[in-house]
From TrEMBL:
SUPFAM superfamilies: Calcium ATPase, transduction domain A, Calcium ATPase, transmembrane domain M, Metal cation-transporting ATPase, ATP-binding domain N. This is P-type ATPase A domain-containing protein. The chain crosses the membrane at residues 102-120, 140-171. It comes from Luteimicrobium album. Keywords: Membrane, Transmembrane, Transmembrane helix. It is found in: Cell membrane.
């Protein structure tokens, strides 16, 4: 269906790779994950359930869903944002505001001062009648005007504008996009730098920082460890794999396992599961998979997770399910065996450190 043909109350089928063409409400969902980074700047995908809203401009990165259209055209969220962004607002400049105040005061004061100057010049030439009869009033008016012109601070306006223009040229030579002349003044007054992480410090993509095999005696050559790594490789090789699965499967040399059954991820459960030839596995947050556990394997794994999470990383756990594929309608069993801890993080831009160091050297501290 063409975008122009979509109207209110249409029902759309969205699948992996589709861009959401209009605002809507999810009717039925199958593991739907939405990338809303174009709207919010946050690269982490958002999992949607029935009844949740989806917004135009976002992209389906996993799963599928049917959506009831609730807003199109100018009423859609993306269009409203674009309209707000196109509105022009003048940057506030204290120098310009100060000059405007001076000009306002001078404009009010100049009229009575001009009259007083003219009156004093007429009196100096013998009074109003004498000045008119002798024609000296012309010289009096010229003298009054000359005095008033000297009161107008046109040089202040000119010098300020020239300084702004010169500063804009110098900034442009440094590769800075200057949209308004007072930009240099605004920049000079900055003392706190607030940054949106995604797209500014990071490039918006998730990568693998570290991976730990935590099976008893587990090393990459061990059969159980190799099988677990093969499951991660299979999850990453899935055409509908999300960013987390792709990152968790980075650099695995083992062949992808054959997946025979699966439980899709749910934001309510916070885990997904797959069944392979030898074992079933659960992938999710360590605190969810090992909740309420006090055994040595759980304690050691959670200690490793806390250490990794303390660096600002995102941590996911792959665990064996000895009893087979868990029932999505019941709580997870308490016999899950931690297998692989994956430490994930967004890629930091190569010039981020240099840029932040420059601002720090200029006395601009973090918020």
């Amino acid at each position: 269906m063409a975008l122009a043909d979509i109207v209110l109350d249409d029902v759309l089928l969205l699948a992996t790779g589709d861009q959401v063409p209009a605002d809507g409400t999810v009717l039925e969902v199958a593991g739907l994950e939405i990338d809303e980074s174009m709207l919010t700047g946050e690269s982490r995908s958002v999992r949607k359930q029935s009844g949740d809203d989806v917004l135009s401009g976002s992209v389906v990165v996993a799963g599928s869903a049917t959506v009831h259209v609730t807003a199109v055209g100018a009423d859609s969220y993306a269009q409203r944002i674009a309209t707000e962004a196109r509105r022009f607002s003048v940057a506030r400049s204290e120098l310009r505001d100060g000059i405007n105040k001076v000009l306002a005061v001078v404009s009010v004061a100049i009229v009575p001062i001009a009259l007083l100057l003219a009156w004093s010049q007429l009196r100096a030439t013998g009074g109003l009648s004498e000045s008119i009869s002798s024609g000296a009033w012309r010289d009096a008016v010229v003298a009054a005007v000359a005095g008033v012109v000297g009161m107008i601070p046109e040089g202040l306006v000119l010098l300020t504008s020239l300084n702004f223009a010169l500063a804009a040229i110098l900034l442009a030579r440094q590769g800075v996009l200057v949209q308004e002349l007072p930009a240099v003044e605004v920049l000079a007054r900055v003392d706190v730098l607030c940054l949106d992480k995604t797209g500014t410090i990071t490039d918006g993509t998730i990568g693998l920082r570290d991976r730990h095999v935590v099976l008893p005696g587990g090393d990459a050559r061990d059969g159980r460890a190799a099988a677990a790594l093969g499951v991660l490789a299979a999850l990453a090789a899935d055409p509908g794999a999300n960013a987390t699965a792709l990152a968790a499967g980075e650099g695995i040399e083992e062949s992808p396992a054959t997946v025979t059954d699966a439980v899709p991820f749910s934001s309510a459960r916070k885990w997904s599961a797959v069944a392979a030839a030898e074992h079933a596995y659960v992938l999710g947050g360590p605190d969810i998979l090992l909740a309420g556990r006090g055994d040595d394997a759980a304690r050691d794994t959670l200690a490793l997770v806390r250490e990794a999470a303390g660096t600002g990383s995102r941590v996911v756990l792959l665990a064996e399910a000895p009893a087979g594929l868990p029932d999505p309608d019941h709580p997870l069993p308490h016999d899950l065996v931690p297998a692989v801890v994956c430490v994930l993080g967004e890629h930091v831009r190569p010039d981020a450190e240099q840029t932040l160091a420059y601002f720090h050297a200029q006395g601009c501290g973090p918020s």
